[in-house]
Amino acid sequence: MTTRAPTPIIAIDGTAASGKGTLARRLADALGFAYLDTGTLYRKVAVDVLRAGGDPADAGAAIEAAQNLQKNLDLQSLKDPAIRTAEAGKYASVVAAVPGVRSALTDLQRGFAIHPPALADGTPAKGAILDGRDITTFICPDAPVKFYVDAAVETRAQRRHKELLGNGEAIEFEQVLEDMKIRDARDMGRKDAPMTIAPDAIVIDTTAMGVEAVVALAMAHVRTVLGQK
Question: Has 224 been labeled as part of a binding site?
């Protein structure tokens, strides 16, 4: 299925806590694009299963939750604080490894890319930005702009640990680091649409880069390819 559309698409993949979400939001704000953090879809599925008293590792329960989300997506529900917890992140990659879950959410993501919703103020979106694990390779393989964002796992774990502590979660750094390594391995090793670097993606290593430098680098590429001002 192609994802070419009248409006441009920016696809961003990368590892957890690499800074891809921050980059995507900054680009979306600057360009007037609609933004979808596709990882929140999988986090939402995991949280919905847990709230129903189920086990995210139960494929049937995960698929049912994904199908419900596909039919009744409310972008505001993706701002639920429970989605940002360490538990949600841990189980997001578990449900994401279920082919039926990925299938249920594929059309949802592609639909957002091809027909991005209006911005919060009602202004029509000038394009779409999606970030995740398989956006550049599977969801939007025809996107004219692709980035892959990464950083050293220890750096990413430090960022995520700080974020979780700031949200009031009592968790040790070592646990965050271990969970991140497990998640990386699961995301890269799953059979369906594993996380990998698209041949035509611009790779950005944020280990020693500040946010402004990352955004400037990405924006320069966007302007070159899309002619955005």
Answer: no
Residue 34 counted as domain residue? yes
DSSP reduced 3-state for 128: strand
Residue 146 annotated as lining a ligand binding site? no
16 annotated as ligand-binding: yes
* DSSP annotation of 37: E
- Is 14 a known ligand-binding residue? yes
Q: Is 17 annotated as a binding residue?
A: yes
In a domain, 2, yes or no: no
CA distance 198 to 36: 19
5's enclosing H/E stretch is none
Q: Is residue 4 part of a domain?
A: no
pTM: 0.90
Give the DSSP H or E segment for 218: helix 211-226
Alpha carbon distance 97, 58 (integer Å)? 11
Is 44 flagged in the annotation as binding? no
Read off the pLDDT of residues 63-93 as tens digits, 9 standing for 90 and up: 999 999 999 888 889 999 999 898 998 899 8
Q: Is 18 annotated as a binding residue?
A: yes
CATH number of the domain at 169, please.
Answer: 3.40.50.300
Is 210 annotated for ligand binding?
no
